[in-house]
Amino acid sequence: QVQLVESGGGLVQPGGSLRLSCLVSGSISGRYRMGWYYQPPGKQRELLASITDEGDTTLADSVKGRFTISLENAKNTVYLQMNSLKSEDTAVYYCYADQRQFPFLKYRGQGTQVTVSS
After folding, report:
1. 23: closest CA among 35, 1, 7?
2. Cβ contacts of residue 90 below 8 Å, gap of 6+?
3. Contact (CB, 8 A) for 109 and 20
4. Residue range 19-44: average pLDDT?
5. Mean pLDDT confidence for 14-20
6. Cα distances (angstroms) measured from residue 33 to each of 64, 65, 93, 107, 117
7. Neighbouring C-beta atoms of residue 87, cutoff 10 Å
8. pLDDT (tens digit per residue) in 33-52
């Protein structure tokens, strides 16, 4: 059974950096896409970043130039490097993994809190 476990969240000052990690326990067969959603307080969950098994990445416009997503296959881990953090980045960050082929299974993490505040 596949499980996703996020880590790396916490409290950081504006302008600071954090790196979120999402460890995949188990194996996702075939082609897949992994990434991060975030949900600011009182708002809906939004897609933030993704990366495929082929290394293709996408980033939301709001974080381009500040955030980077990467995948380390040897460690079954996807990372979100967050730099130049702003107060509006405060949110719960959720890791996800979707198969890109049948049976198109989907996996979700429990989330990790990121708070940007002085």
Report:
1. 7
2. 40, 41, 114, 115, 116, 117
3. no
4. 93
5. 98
6. 19, 21, 17, 10, 31
7. 12
8. 999 999 999 999 999 999 99
Q: Which residue has the tokens 């990434």?
A: 35
Identify which of 112, 100, 116, 117 has the alpha carbon closest to the alpha carbon of residue 39.
Answer: 112
Residue that the structure tokens 């429990």 belong to:
110
3-state secondary structure of 81: strand
H-helix or E-strand containing 52?
strand 46-52
**Per-residue pLDDT reduced to its tens digit, 57-84:** 999 999 999 999 999 988 789 999 999 9
Q: In this prediction, what percent of the chain has a pLDDT beyond 90? A: 90
For tokens 């405060």, name the residue. Answer: 90
| CB crowding 15-50: b at 16 or more within 10 Å, else e | eeebebbbebeeebeeebbbbbbbeeeeeeeeebbb
